[in-house]
Design brief:
By secondary structure, chain A is of the alpha+beta class. The first copy, chain A, has 13 helices and 10 strands. In chain A, 47% of the residues lie in helices and 17% in strands. The structure holds a DNA duplex.
Amino acid sequence: MVDDRKLAVLRAIVEDYVSTNEPVGSKALADRHNLGVSPATIRNDMAVLEEQGYIAQPHTSAGRVPTDKGYRLFVDRLSQVKPLSGAERRAIESFLAGAVDLDDVVMRTVRLLAQLTRQVAVVQYPTMSNSKIRHVELVPLNERRLMFVLITNTGRVEQRVVELQEVIDDNRVAHLRAVLNACLDGCGLASVPDMVADLPERLPAEDRPVAATILSVLLESLVDRHDEKIVFAGTANLAGADFTVGLRDVLEALEEQVVLMRLLGETSDLSALTVRIGSENPYTGLQGTSIVAAGYGSGGKQLARLGVLGPTRMDYPVTMGAVRAVARYVSQILAAS
Amino acid sequence: MVDDRKLAVLRAIVEDYVSTNEPVGSKALADRHNLGVSPATIRNDMAVLEEQGYIAQPHTSAGRVPTDKGYRLFVDRLSQVKPLSGAERRAIESFLAGAVDLDDVVMRTVRLLAQLTRQVAVVQYPTMSNSKIRHVELVPLNERRLMFVLITNTGRVEQRVVELQEVIDDNRVAHLRAVLNACLDGCGLASVPDMVADLPERLPAEDRPVAATILSVLLESLVDRHDEKIVFAGTANLAGADFTVGLRDVLEALEEQVVLMRLLGETSDLSALTVRIGSENPYTGLQGTSIVAAGYGSGGKQLARLGVLGPTRMDYPVTMGAVRAVARYVSQILAAS
DNA sequence: CTTGGCACTCGGGAACACCGAGTGCCAGAC
DNA sequence: GTCTGGCACTCGGTGTTCCCGAGTGCCAAG
């Protein structure tokens, strides 16, 4: 029922509509793409495609526009991810290479991606759950307060101020630090609770209250940040695009960490590109938008996800190429550090 | 030439225009505000005000609209900062009280301010230049790499990975750490370069290259972050307002840290509220917007600035009240931590 | 100096006609 | 059976015209 020529017609419709932002008619199609058939034939095909729900007309007697289902078919079967040009690759490399720390990597990545795709870029901070503790530091601030710093092998640093019930001197701090590091060094974050469960018992009685306080802060900092940080950039690119839905909703969604998180994270495929098109998106207010996302991370393990958000009418091959490329480069950068 | 009644007329025009978003005519003014005079009189006053440049008419035979100069006069002489309601104050307090660290304080502040004013909130991270070093930490990552962490009394933590030319063992690291802390503890950031200038000379020759590397990273981290981090929130509030200028420009400006920085920072008044109205703003693209900003900081010293950005047609008394209140509360929170 | 009256101006909205891109369908050609 | 050219039809968008009413400026009188 949907033979090759009809697929070619659908592809042509998507491509034309993406580039012109106007409903595309049978004549224009016949002109611009050499499909080898007349407009009338194309019309018949279009009627079938519309019947199947791949395209729709905004009004009677207007051209056709791809539906979400049409974009889906296009992405799945009719398009190829478009690799970046050499110049673009070099630009990415040099732009990311200058990063000095994790914050900087994330910041540069999100800006780069926004600029590259001319859409809104979203980058999730590397998830701590998959990383390991590289060092724990206790810094006395004054008699009753410690700064507790946790450093992971992904370069992430968590800090908390610990208020103590009692006065503690530097020697005891040093001792606690040594014990903590002995216990936790190289330990995966997920297994931290188990590792420290019996730690107070192994300490002299006088140190137990302090240790318990510190551990509670440690555990809290792990849980607290389980909802990971997400940053975005490139909202200015939304101003040009006209959404079917108001862009107020889009901006609101972007500032809701939880929504963003689910957008990026719900797709659990590891390194594959995931595309969520229009109404496939569970959130009202983002109905007119699509998300292209990919996982990234150092080594073989995926640490987090990044992607872009744009109007449903986007150039999927190019966007997917950019997202994939950036994810790869960021992974490289992270692995090297 | 500009007597009290004319000022009252100007005030009424600003208030009406802000609330209705429509050019206000003489009749409407006479109706809504009891100025005790007839529309005709008001018309005469309006003609004078227009002559002076305080108001303008979009077209012949339309009502009047305040000019930037008119808003300026209104802010300077015709309005009083409107204090927040008790409920609002309590909301601020409870919202900010839950913050766990500096990042969290800033994040909560910017969101709070955006919600409170229904505009775009902008918050600058506390400037390091005014703060002091509380602790310097060196953490060996492996034989040739150190994590360098700098903790300030404002709760800020800077981190850098240091790549060394030579292998270094834990004892030497401990020694360097002790030396660095002895040298820098409690030292103001501005005076760091002086303090460390002769430090290598005071070390045994073998440690000098390593110390030099670490110091260069230290100094670089100070300089690097001299352009301070700024965050913003509430861009969704821009979607409703219609700018004379496209909001694309506004969004672009918001993502330019440098522009934001200058917007907040150029006004050097310490704790006073500063208001920049429309064209007083040096940046094209932000011509249709106003900025209300205030300094905040712990103790007597101002550390950084925060504010909101919105359409020139904004409710200045309320906005100023909200900005002032938030600045004060944040200062309290910071002072307490 | 203030006020009521009055003629004048224009922007914005409603009504309307027109155009043209695009469609669906059908009969004929390959 | 599939494709093609022809043809009548639809309807959104644009341009035109017209009208209304809010608002103004000016003037003469209080």
